[in-house]
Amino acid sequence: MNKQNRYKISNNSFSAINDKEILIVEEWGVDAIRVYSSPKNKKIKNEFGIKELKKNENSNFKIIQNGDIIEFINGNLKVEYKDNKLFFYNKNQLILEEYSRKQSNVRRTIGIDDDVKIEYKPSYSLNISPREFKKNYKDSFESIQLFETDINEKIFGMGSYAEENLNKNLGMYELMQRNSQTTIPFYISNKNYGFLWNGSSIGNVSFNKNYKKWVNNNTECIDYVVIVGENPKDIIEKYTFMVGRAPIIKKELLGLWQSKLRYQTTNEVESIYNEYLNRKIKPSVIVIDYFHWTEDGNFEFDDNYWKDIDKLSKKMKETNTELMVSVWPTVSKNSKYYNYYKNNKMLLEPRDNKSKIFDNKDILDFYNDETKKFVSNLLTNNYKTKNIKLFWADQAEPEMNIYEQREYNTSKGNFEKMANRYPYEYLMTIPREEGYPVLIRSAWFNSQKEGSLVWSGDIDSSFKSLREQIQILISMGLSGISWSTTDIAGFHSGDSTTQKFKELMIRWFQFAVFSPVLRMHGDRQPHSQKIGKTGGGVRTSGSSNEIWSFGTEVERILTKYIRIREKLVDYIFKLYEESTNFGYPISRSLFFEFPNDKKAWDDRLSYMFGSDLLISPVIDFEMKKMKVYLPDGNDWINVFNNKVYKGGKDYIIEFSLETLPVFCKKDSYLAKKINYIFN
After folding, report:
1. Is 397 assigned a catalytic role?
2. Is residue 450 annotated as part of the catalytic site, yes or no?
3. Are 62 and 255 in contact (CB under 8 A)?
4. Cα distance between residue 529 and residue 480, in whole Å
5. Domain extents for the chain?
6. Strands, E, within 39-164: which ranges?
7. Residue (of 216, 41, 224, 228) closest to 140 by Cα position
8. 315, containing H or E segment
9. CA within 20 to 30 Å of 633's CA: 23, 73, 476, 548, which one?
10. Residue 143 in 3-state DSSP?
11. In the chain, what percentage of residues exceed pLDDT 70?
């Protein structure tokens, strides 16, 4: 037996302990095992990981020890501990293996070879352990976790990264929240397992050709969970039971959300609202964007421009239209609460005592419960009393001039150690009501169960960006974030007077109709002049961004798709219920619904909107036809011409500017309503 390790078997776990590390392998519900490692020779509470990580269900398991080899069998998942590394099996098929390059016990220095039993197994002089800790602070470490790679494996999820790759294998990903990048370190593999990395430190993961490498820059432990299942749906159900599922949403919020950078007065919002009513369109939401306030950190309307906003909000509720307000975590020195925030340690503190995190402003420390309480009271007193229940938590990463989180401290320690959890702490500051989501620009584990609606950030206006949004929508759903959205036609850099932008608006809007939330937003050029010299008047406003802002042809087509969305609302609400009950994404990869179809695992440009509709967004300018794969096992109806196609084949589909490839399962409930909904 290995003299370096001591072993301990308890009710639901086993531990391997030596002078450098404690390794704990623990049952974590049905078909799930949690692995914990610390260099401190004792288990330390992972207070900066997931706030709440439940076991999915009670399970039957057994632990078998034979010398230095330990087997942990939990349902279909088996973990084998041998030679200080872990092997994971799903129904006895190896799915994941820690990477180790160490020498075996036999060395020249032991003695005469004839006196030593020769073990025929790999032996390396690299001295690389599967789990390593490198001290970098007084009580903290850089952690490194290594796994063997499989270049043929397919890996999906990981949150929202600005790229077109749906399969993350062979890619390198920064574990850091940025504007237009949301880190949710969970993935699903085509080997029918899910992997959850429970560390909120800044770091990175590399799915390399030679090994998988997870790094946390500033931590005290390694903590991860492996889940196995029969298929992706099974894995997502088990995973979302652990981290939480989205609550139910109000059905009235599933129509059009109207927003732009930025409406400047009560009268302007009322005018936009009336214009929609004149077109017999009742928006679900109209959004009041940033700098409606007096100063950053005051969390109040500037009454010079927003007089009687409470009366307008009350009036809009008669048509089930809600107002939403943007809030930021920034604090200017001119805020009337600045000294209070500062004196009560409610701000992230620069280590050099002078740096400003973003735009010469401080950022609120939401890890401090007193900060949460104080800001939440301001939001309640200054907005909810004005009949406003919807909040937009912008800058939720938080955005930084230079992303150097280790240069700032929170009330709980160095910011780098817990930075990826900031969006969740921010979210928990927002007053939430049942049925009302919080629009937010980033997320973390548990965010979905608190009603977060995550949008993909300040993205550019291009067809390339549109292609990326398809991948992001699918990846977020596979990361457990079932509610996500985008700025239709992108946020910035587009010339809205050109034909190319107008076509982009149409194609993006068509895509967004078949997504969780249909949301107009953007910073359109040119900007208008300032309307004042103080408070909310000092910022300019972008050009108009309503459905009628881009010409009559664009308005006609967008109106057509608003009507389609309205007729789909019962179906869409059913998808939200599935998200609440089972954790399923609303927009789903093809393989989520068709796991036995090998081609479905490779398709990155089509997706399922629920179980009945297959959507292939039009992704290039002046595109008139595209290849679409229809999964095996069903016949499919083109919803715009009723033509029927056999599944399991590729087809070249032609379309006009008014249509896109949308197919419905022939034998589905929705198939009976195709003509009513689409024609």
Report:
1. yes
2. no
3. no
4. 42
5. 6-243, 251-582, 589-678
6. 61-66, 69-74, 77-82, 85-90, 93-97, 131-137, 140-147, 155-160
7. 216
8. helix 309-316
9. 476
10. strand
11. 97
CA 314-317-322 angle, 5° bins: 100
Model pLDDT, residue 110: 52
296, 397, 399, 546: the active-site residue: 397
**560, β-bridge pairs:** none
| Digit-coded pLDDT (tens) for 639-650 | 999 999 999 999
Give the H/E segment covering residue 186. Answer: strand 182-189
* Fold match, 6-243 / 589-678: yes
Helix axes 552-567, 569-582, angle to 10 degrees: 60
Catalytic member of 394, 425, 593, 612: 394
According to CATH, what is the number of the domain 251-582? 3.20.20.80
Average pLDDT of span 640-663? 99
What gap in Å lies between CA 581 and CA 575, rounded to an integer? 10
- The answer to whether 360 and 283 are in contact (CB under 8 A) is no
Q: What is the CATH number of domain 6-243?
A: 2.60.40.1760
597 is catalytic: no
Q: What is the pLDDT of residues 241-284, one digit of tens each?
A: 999 999 999 999 999 999 999 999 999 999 999 999 999 999 99
Helix (H, G, I), strand (E, B) or coil at 635: strand
* Residue in this structure with the two tokens 């239709």, named with its chain if needed: 488
Side chain identity at 31, as an amino acid letter?
D
Task: Say how many C-beta atoms besides its own lie within 10 A of residue 476's C-beta.
Answer: 27
More confident residue, 68 or 231: 231
Predicted pLDDT of residue 2:
45
Q: Which of 296, 365, 450, 458 is catalytic?
A: 458
Q: At the top level of CATH, which class does the domain 589-678 belong to?
A: mainly beta
Task: List the one residue out of 321, 231, 92, 126 whose CA is nearest residue 593.
Answer: 231
Give me 556's structure tokens.
Answer: 């006609």
